[in-house]
Design brief:
single chain, about 280 residues, alpha+beta, Phosphatase 2c, domain 1, five-stranded antiparallel sheet, 8 helices, about 35% helix, globular
């Protein structure tokens, strides 16, 4: 997308480094004519081959979602997109990814459960953002008023670290699909957006706060402006205008996600974040 820069990386968390577990997160950016696809996937920590699952799911997203966008002609200027139509198309695309993961499980000689991963897919069009997800993680955007807003609500189960995966047994029940899969259309004018796995949420989002009356933790789900503000308004524009190539930007971003502040440095879980910023001339 013209005038936009994309920084993205997946890095091992402290716990995975200590236990010699490979990074189970994966992300990528795919550029197409008139739209860009951003994907973040977080492999289930308890599944032996979830690193393969997250990588393959990310690749498969770029197989099916361009077809959906172009069949609907949603990449054309001034296309009308209703949330219910996007949600229906997104479920179709996610199901196709799930079915391809089943074929991968056969070739890997394992159960599909071993490839379990969450998935966040964002389609950046010229006039809006389309987002769909299954599982946890976070996503947000900054509008031209410099206001940060959440773009999705992560699915959290009844127990700590419990969520749903694209490989979960939900695909035969329409009610379950609508419960576990969320899709949104954002039409605000924006200057930045982010997608991240839950390993980055404590550093970049206001998450849990105990209700003073009920004493029950509530998820605020609010992007932490102080985390993003200097990056999108000063640091990243300065790097881009200095002539840094995309690969150099990603190496800098990888280093930041690894050691950028104490929260990121001490995070046990793998960390993934895509940060897209519009750079004015």
């Amino acid at each position: 997308m013209k005038d936009w820069s994309y920084l993205y990386a997946s890095v091992q968390g402290k716990g995975h480094i200590e236990e010699n577990i490979p990074c189970q997160d994966f992300c990528n950016i795919f550029h197409h004519t008139n739209y860009t696809i951003c994907v973040v996937s977080d492999g289930a920590g308890s599944c032996e081959k979830s690193d393969i699952g997250s990588k393959k799911a990310t690749e498969f997203a770029n197989t099916y979602f361009p077809k959906l966008i172009e069949e609907k002609k949603w990449h054309k200027p001034h296309a009308k997109i209703k949330t219910k139509d996007w949600h229906k198309a997104a479920i179709k695309g996610l199901k196709a990814i799930r079915d391809d993961l089943e074929r991968v499980s056969i070739s890997e000689g394992c159960e599909i459960k071993e490839l379990s991963c969450t998935l966040i897919i964002l389609i950046q069009l010229k006039e809006r953002l389309l987002i769909t997800h299954i599982g946890d993680g976070r996503a947000g955007y900054c509008n031209i008023k410099d206001e940060w807003k959440a773009m999705m609500k992560p699915y959290k189960g009844g127990y700590s670290n419990e969520t749903v995966f694209i490989t979960s047994n939900i695909w035969g029940d329409k009610e379950k699909l609508n419960h576990y899969i969320e899709s949104r259309v954002c039409s605000e004018k924006i200057k930045a957006f982010c997608l991240l796995s839950d390993g980055c949420e404590n550093a970049s989002f206001e998450c849990y706060k105990v209700n003073s009356e009920t004493y029950v933790p509530e998820d605020l789900n609010k992007p932490f402006k102080d985390f993003f503000h200097e990056n999108i308004n000063t640091n990243i524009p300065k790097l881009v205008k200095s002539g840094k190539e995309p690969q150099e930007l990603n190496e800098i971003w990888k280093s930041f996600l690894t050691n950028g502040n104490d929260t990121l440095k001490n995070e046990s879980d793998d960390k993934t974040m895509i940060l897209a910023v519009k750079i004015s001339a």
